[in-house]
Amino acid sequence: MKKKIVLAALFVLPVVVYLFFASGVNNFGRLPILTEKVSDVSQMDPNVQFKGKITILGFLGNNVGAMQGNAFNLNQKIYKRFGEFSDFQMIMVVPQGNEEQVGELKDELGKLSNVDKWHFAFGTEDEIETLFASLKSNVDLDANLATPNVFIIDKDLSLRGRDDDEDEGVKYGFDTSSVAELNNKMVDDVKIILAEYRLALKKNNADRSK
Predict the structure, then answer these.
(1) How many CB atoms lie within 10 A of CB 43?
(2) What sections of the chain are H helices per DSSP?
């Protein structure tokens, strides 16, 4: 009798756990869309694009060296964790003329991890301001066209974030100067959007096989 109970528990428990988490992702695990139809970065720099990728978007500005610590935090806490996903990328927007500074940053990041999915988009001041304005966020660029905040852009060019954040209410971006915010909030939100797309892909594949 005890053996049967143990076997039943071993069989049932994993199923219950799976259903619990599957239900949670399906019903609660969708990252809210805060802004639709964000301008594609390809309009500014044809070497990169948002379409078809889950993008972490940042704005490094004219003083790339001053943003190096932010980039390192992002690399260690987000990129190293999710960089292996084929549909994940980082795009940092930088004003034209800062190519040398960006090269130095990439060299430094390369000492910490593979930087294949770190991309840098170069544009004019007007192009950068236009792209940033399309986010329709409550965050501002500074005089150097930089912000410590990064943003999650989905495959369909929508800005994702939180509409019920316990601290900010509506949360458009994540402060890369705060390791705690990256660990406690951004990691969770990137997990959610990746799971969302994977569930959709599995559903599409299942529907096709019927």
Answers:
(1) 13
(2) 2-28, 68-74, 80-82, 99-110, 125-133, 179-181, 187-209
Q: Which amino acid is at 99?
A: E
Mean pLDDT of 19-47: 75
* Residue that has been written with the tokens 């695990």 in this structure: 29
Structure confidence at residue 208 (pLDDT): 54
User: Which superfamily, per CATH, for 33-209?
Assistant: Glutaredoxin (3.40.30.10)
Average pLDDT of every residue of the chain: 87
Q: Is the pLDDT of residue 94 over 50?
A: yes
pTM: 0.83
Rounded Cα distance between 139 and 141, Å, is 7
- Provide the pLDDT for residue 203: 56
Q: Which of 188, 143, 157, 138 is nearest to 57 (CA)?
A: 157
Could you give phi then psi for residue 189, rounded to 5 degrees? -70, -35
State how far the Cα of 70 lies from the Cα of 86, in Å rounded to an integer: 24
Contacts with 147 (C-beta within 8 Å, 6 or more apart), sequence order: 58, 59, 61, 139, 140, 141, 173
Average pLDDT for 16-25: 40
